[in-house]
Amino acid sequence: MAEAWLGNLTEAVADLGSNGVPGLPSIKTKKLVVRNSDLIWAEKNVIRMVSMAQLKGGCSNSSNPIKTLQIPNLNFDIHSLALNHTKKLLAVSGTHQVLVIVLPRPGYANLVTPTLDSRSILIGQYYHALPGSSQLANVDWHPWSCSAASLLVLTRDSLLREYDVSLDSDEPQQSLSFTQHSAMPGSLSTPLSNHRSRGFSADDDRDDECVSFHLGCSSSDWGALTLYALMRNGDVYALCPFLPTHALVPINYIQNLRGVTEAKLLDPAHEDNGIVEARLNQQMRWLNAMAKQMHSLDGSATSFKCSSPRATGSILRQGPYLVQPPPSDDDEEADASDIIAIRPSQLPMDVFVVVYTNGRVDVCLATDNVEGRWSSRAELAAQPPVMSTYETIQLVNGADVGYPSLEHDPVYEDTVYISHASGVHALVLKPWLDELAQTECITRDSKLIQVVQTGERDNAQSNPVVALDIVNDAFLGYFLLALTANLQLLPLALSLRVEETSGEGVEEKEHKKGAEGADHTSEHLKHYSSLLDAAHPIDLDAAHPIDLTRGLDGGHTRDEIAITPQTLRYLGGVVSNVRRHTHALTASANSVQDRLSLQIRESARQIDRLAHVAQVATNPSNQAGVGSGKGGRVHAVSLDQLALLARMDRLLQRLMDRHQPTLSVHETKWFEELARIRDEVGGSGGGKNGDAKGRALQARMSRLNHQLNILRPQVEAYQLGQAAKLTPSSAIGASQIAKVEGVLHEE
């Protein structure tokens, strides 16, 4: 088959797995990531990777394409993997430790060795690895980091720390708290009024435990500068504006946001609202401070380096969101597990998807968009943001789904995948988003599809899904990869959507086709001629009741009928009318009987023809000459199709190799020789022997330069002496030349 390489990949990954019975994870996990065409997964404290492109192309030089990374500092069980946006750094997190690994270059698959040495950096050992430190909740990279090395680490005590791996891996650049106002840069010294979003009591400690966070993604408002946090009880907080300490921000984004904020500030509707006006003024000060950092930029520059301005004040923690309508009391007992915020193109607001440990999924709409807000006395009277619950969905009834996690589809913004202990579900928001784009009333619900089921519903915890990722590559294709706890890799091919043609266009096309070519189709394109023609209409007049009063004088209907010529003529008309109706009914009955007989014959004829077609399709050596060998031809066509697909894959691989060629063997040897010469001359490689050779060569070069400086004056003096010998001592005068010419003339 064309996708047989996926089966080989699944078997190769399963062979490296353990034989133990896995249990239900006690925390949210993500043990699989995809880097371009490389698959990276973790088992306990071991990280392995394989090139899916070379595995599909069959051009791997190694008998075992799976490589194991040798990482000296990795001595803990891995729970989560996170790739940075340059696909060069991998964040590895456990329960209390974080490690950043420098991934090998794409050419690692050509190496014969089964192991690869990788550099690693431990992150925040003082804050996370010491006894008594809080458990890690989530680890992710910020996309707007200047060096693509801004790592965000969230712990269960609601503290978020930003580490710049390129500068300092021990101390965070900034720390944020979602519970303690005084510990936040940007918090109020006086706590806000306790607006509980779900009606929990004050002694509920789950509102102080953070389980996940998500970065906003909208580029039309403050969404890209927003950080959302999810508490264990389901509360959602927002922090805006949030930037890494050393950020790289798009120029167009700041300029557009500055223009929108300035237009709001000039709107007369905000003049009467002091809180909104003060908030807009602070936003303009912050945006103006950001714009001042756009200095000495080229005309082709699209981003600029900056840091978040501090002069505008401390950033305010917004929330918790007020959920309307609130959940029931039974739903409040479940713990929240993960959150994701998306901004569909059909909506001017964020859509939140929150998943819980009991399998409940809440789809909510942010009624109030998040804006940049700073601590001030005016913000004390501001109302908390509101979140409207659109629908609540139950994944699996009566089963523990562990700690589900969410993954956004990279192709379709309205699709979210939910991985849990029972498998994987796809949540498609397209039905009601399309309806909302056409009308203001929404009646449809989201579509929930179970795409992967790891086992029976009553025993799904025996093999839970611990990781999920989506592959979208021109060579590999578009498919889903799910990893179970016992290292069973489950690939699932995904289909691209095809835009449906409107019903009106289809009807018009069919009507036009039927009006123009009905006769032509029946004569030239129809291989089977039916015995039935168009049905004849039945005479409905014969089925009507006979009017016996027609032709009778109304004045004699109640009197005794006398035998008169008039009554005789009336009786004759009635008899004639009855006889005519009788003949019409008889003709209609005969027509129906003939039609029924013809339909019976046609049905038997069609059954015989279907049996003949089935015999032709299933038996290549049947007695019918027209169908002889058709089964073999169908099989040959299918084999040719598979060969064409394989050829297309090889052609695409060759095109990719030409677009991004690798070094040949001779080029590799030449560069190695150049590196050896450089190390010998410069003394920068080869260990102690290399340094000794380099120092010896440098000493020899210095001695030769000294000798050359000594010999250069002697050589110059010698050259001057030789030039003097070649030059005549005196020149011949003009009179002497005239005498010589005279003597020569006489001779």
Automatic annotation (TrEMBL):
It comes from the Eukaryota. Residues 506-523 have a biased composition (Basic and acidic residues). Pfam families: Nup88 (PF10168). Its main location: nucleus. Residues 180-194 have a biased composition (Polar residues). One of its GO terms (cellular component) is nuclear pore. Keywords: mRNA transport, Nuclear pore complex, Nucleus, Protein transport, Translocation, Transport. It is found in: Nucleus, Nuclear pore complex. InterPro entries: Nucleoporin_Nup88, NUP88/NUP82. Residues 180-201, 502-523 are annotated as: Disordered. The keyword Protein transport applies. One of its GO terms (biological process) is mRNA export from nucleus. One of its GO terms (molecular function) is structural constituent of nuclear pore. This is Nucleoporin nup82. It comes from Wallemia ichthyophaga.
